[in-house]
Structure formats: C-alpha cells, structure tokens
C-alpha cells in the first residue's frame, strides 16, 4: 500500500509540476486579462459611453446621467441641475470616474501598467458597489450576501468574483504576452548599455 501511495504521489507531483512549469510566467496573467476582456471590458465601456457629454469633446464634459450615476443623492438635492454642483471636487470626481471606465479596462486588456490598472479597477468596483448600495439604495436581493447559497446577486457575489479576477494580474503581473513585458524587456536592454 505504501508503494502504491508513493507512486500515485510521484505521478501527481510530476504531472502538476510539469503543468506549473509550462504555464509559469505567462498563462495566469494572460488568461485573467482574456477573461476580463471577454466578460467585463464591454460592460465598463458601455457604462462609460452613457456618461459622455454631447459632441466630439463629450469626454471633457460628462452628461447629467454621469452625475446621476456617480453622485445620485447630490443630484436629487439640486433637482438634477449639474450647474449647481461645484467642479472641484465633485465634477472632477465624475470626470475622472468616467475616464476610468475607459482607460483602466483598456490598460488591463493590453497589459500596460497592468498592476496599477488592476488596483485602480478594484478600487473602482468597491466605490461603484458603495454608490449602488448607499447612493442608489440597492435592495437586499441585489446586494445579496456571502455564503447565502445564491451566486447570482449583483453586488456581493458577482463583484467579489470581478475583484478576485483582478487580483491575478495585480499580484502575478500581466504575463509575458503584454506591453508591460515588451517595454520591460526593452528597458532592461537599454539599461545594460549604460
């Protein structure tokens, strides 16, 4: 029995050790970025589009809808008149929040400043969840609860999975198939010559 157990342990460690060596340094970061792109990129992109103002320079002037989504209680207080809201800090928060929905996901997908962009997205998701619960008054079924046996609640369950997905590139990096790796290799080559 001891020989059989030892044999099975060796097969197990050999097989999964080889798999780990084969995927080390490139697979997890690339896979996390691919899943993020296929599941969440267009979600955030479309959400950002709803926040743009009119015209070619709409990205410089968020819509009233952007203010209503990001600062719902404040918009109610001013009867949805954005001219009543000071640019600093509130208009700036709306502007930067709008830009973040475009810039951070794009940086993650192409693998540029990936760790910083992943951290930014995690913070963004936490703030977004807070605004949904406190500002928009999300109902308990939308909020959900951890360990409740219902994995479909929008905030507690789904957004926790989003954050976990972003922890992979934050902690492990984007992998070799990324602009970070390309620019990093180029930087290291230049540093050798100086």
Summarize this entry quickly.
The chain crosses the membrane at residues 25-45, 82-99, 106-131, 160-183. The chain is mostly helical.
**How many discrete structural domains?**
1
β-strand amount: under 5%
The structure class reads mainly alpha
Estimate the mean pLDDT confidence.
94
End-to-end distance, in Å? Answer: 61 Å
Could you characterize what this model shows?
- The protein is mainly α.
- The protein has one domain (28-193).
- The chain has helices spanning 2-23, 27-49, 64-70, 72-77, 87-110, 114-135, 140-143, 154-172, 179-193.
- Helix 2 (27-49) packs across helix 5 (87-110), helix 2 (27-49) packs across helix 8 and helix 5 crosses helix 6 (114-135).
- 21% of the residues are buried.
- The mean pLDDT is 94.
Which features would summarize this protein structure in a list?
single chain, 194 residues, mainly alpha, 9 helices, flat
Secondary structure elements and pairings:
Layout: H1 2-23, H2 27-49, H3 64-70, H4 72-77, H5 87-110, H6 114-135, H7 140-143, H8 154-172, H9 179-193
Helix pairs in contact: 2-5, 2-8, 5-6, 6-8
């Amino acid at each position: 029995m001891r020989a059989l157990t030892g044999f099975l342990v060796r097969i197990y460690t050999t097989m999964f050790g080889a798999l780990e060596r084969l995927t080390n340094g490139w697979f997890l970061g690339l896979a996390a970025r691919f899943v993020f792109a296929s599941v969440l990129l267009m979600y955030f992109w479309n959400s950002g589009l709803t926040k743009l103002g009119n015209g070619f320079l709409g990205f410089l002037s968020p819509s009233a809808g952007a203010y209503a989504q990001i600062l719902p209680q404040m918009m109610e207080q001013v009867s949805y008149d954005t001219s009543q809201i000071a640019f600093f800090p509130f208009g700036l928060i709306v502007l930067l929040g709008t830009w973040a929905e475009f810039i951070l996901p794009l940086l993650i997908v192409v693998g540029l400043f990936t760790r910083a962009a992943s951290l930014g997205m995690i913070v963004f998701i936490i703030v977004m969840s807070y605004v949904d619960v406190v500002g928009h008054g999300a109902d308990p079924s939308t909020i959900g609860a951890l360990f409740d046996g219902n994995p479909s609640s929008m905030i507690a369950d789904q957004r926790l999975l989003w954050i976990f997905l972003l922890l992979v590139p934050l902690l492990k990096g984007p992998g070799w198939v990324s602009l970070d790796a390309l620019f990093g290799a180029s930087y290291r080559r230049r540093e050798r010559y100086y």
